[in-house]
Amino acid sequence: MGKLKEKYGLSVAIAMVVGVVIGSGVFYKADDVLSYTNGNLLLALLAWAGGAFAMIFGALTFAEFAMRYQTANGIVDYFEVAYGKKVGYLVGWFKGFLYFAPLSAILAWLSGNFTMILFGHNDADNASATWILAVLYMTGLYILNYYAPTVSGKMQVTTTIIKLIPLLLVAVVGIIAGLANGVSLQNFGEASKTFTGDKRFLPMAIVSTAFAYEGWTVSMSINSEIRDSKKNLPRALTIGSLIVFLVYVLYFLGITSVLPTEEIVSQGNASVAVVTTSLFGTVASTLLVVFIVISVLGTLNGLVIACMRSPYSLAIRGQGPWPKKISYVDPKTDMPPYAAIFAYLMSVFFTALWYGSFNNWYGRFISIDEIPIVMIYGFYILLYIWYMLHFKDLPWRKRYLKPIFAMIGACIILYGGMTNPQIGIYMVISLLVCGLGLFFYKDEKKFKDSEDLL
User: Fold this and answer.
1) How many CA atoms lie less than 13 Å away from 216 in the CB half-sphere?
2) What is the spatial distance between Cα 133 and Cα 143, in angstroms, rounded to a whole number?
């Protein structure tokens, strides 16, 4: 058993927030948001604002936790303090098995998907090459993170900078072009006519934006490896969340200034290639799509970082399967090899599950992208309530306003998720998986306290 060293600074922590959030969801979910809002641009912008509301105030609330508690994998720390070690363990189990692993599978698929779009494939969503690339990308990043974690951290910073290039170019040039060609006025004009109409699916649109915004908590998975974590992690959460919101809104305005909203919906994931070709021509568009592939890979890299820490964070507490092996840190790489293997196998499993959905293995399409995010916001509400009850040393604005606003945002996402027809199936699966987690839970009498294990 060993303890991971402090090897990351503020820049890596911010890059974890910005780099994991930005890079996939904004490309993957832009058309979905417009579809749920029936192509209404104003309602779509309201959905993006709703998702950002939940993220920003959630980050501000978690920043207070980060300043007070630090062990390994921040959210597990916070639930342990608030509700006890068993609840903290189950949250960590859920995050590792039903949150990080499925999202890593989605991001591996998206990386392959956008690579095939780059090469002009007409059916990139389910092409054989897309799935082969997904496994290769995932495998390569697990190897990189294990053998060169510092390089992986630098990659996170670099890809964060690179991914901002296409987003900001599309935002600035698209908005200018839209004002010149009248597409912006057309989209806003049409939206204003129907803005007071049917808003039943707005909560589901907010859930889609929550997927695009998700990842802001990933930086907490490396809190014990961040230098001066109690100061730098809150800064990273706050600064990173604000950067993400600004970039997303500008990018969304950029693409809707180039194409009518109904065309974005019909083009789906390929709409980004259509927009960049329209703005910059074929050659420049190809280069920008390359940047987008790098961007998505940066997000996948951040999730791989979190996936590898999840089983380790439980094992150092003497919990989960094979804790002595999983918590072992190789002194040569300063990484836990068995935790990396365990996490990799889980990511591959969910990639296979996602492949099965596309190929009708189950008789119906099973979504593993949005519902885990909905459920994790339910966990966050428990922390927001505990925050208000116990942080009595804070002035009332910090003690109540931040967590209340965060809770409102979380409740909107929960409501939207409950309208998903698959929520019942996923909740049953989640209960079964958490029940399996209880099988590996060790009574404290048989193990030292987590502080001793550290």
Assistant:
1) 34
2) 15
Spatial neighbors of 420 by CB under 8 A, at least 6 apart, are 204, 207, 367, 370, 371, 374
Low-confidence ranges of the chain (pLDDT < 70): 1-8, 12, 16-17, 19-21, 23-25, 28, 70-74, 152-153, 156-157, 194-199, 215-226, 228-230, 269, 363-371, 444-454
| CATH number of 442's domain | 1.20.1740.10
Calpha distance 253→384 (Å, rounded): 32
Whether 3 is in a domain gets the answer no
SS3 6: coil
| Alpha-carbon span 265 to 262, nearest angstrom | 5
3-state secondary structure of 424: helix
Q: Is residue 2 part of a domain?
A: no
CB-CB contact of 201 with 36 (8 Å) = yes
Is the entire prediction scored with pTM above 0.85?
Answer: no
The number of C-alpha atoms within 13 Å of 34 and in the hemisphere containing its C-beta is 25
Q: How far is Cα 400 from Cα 356, in angstroms, rounded to an integer? A: 45
Question: CA-CA distance, 362 to 353, in Å (whole number)?
Answer: 10
Q: Which residue has the tokens 């189990």?
A: 93
**Residue range(s) defining the domain that contains residue 236:** 10-453
Opening angle at CA 309, ends 408 and 418, nearest 5: 30
**Cα dihedral value 426, 52, 253, 124, nearest 10:** -30
Percentage of the chain lying above the pLDDT 70 cut: 82
Helix segments in 70-201, DSSP class H = 74-83, 85-95, 101-118, 128-147, 149-181, 183-194
Q: How far is CA 229 from the centre of its chain?
A: 21
Q: Which two tokens stand for residue 382?
A: 């428990």
Helices 423-439 & 371-390, crossing angle to 10 degrees?
60
Q: How many domains, in total, are found in the chain?
A: 1
pLDDT for 229 equals: 67
The DSSP-derived string for 147-173 is H-HHHHHHHHHHHHHHHHHHHHHHHHH
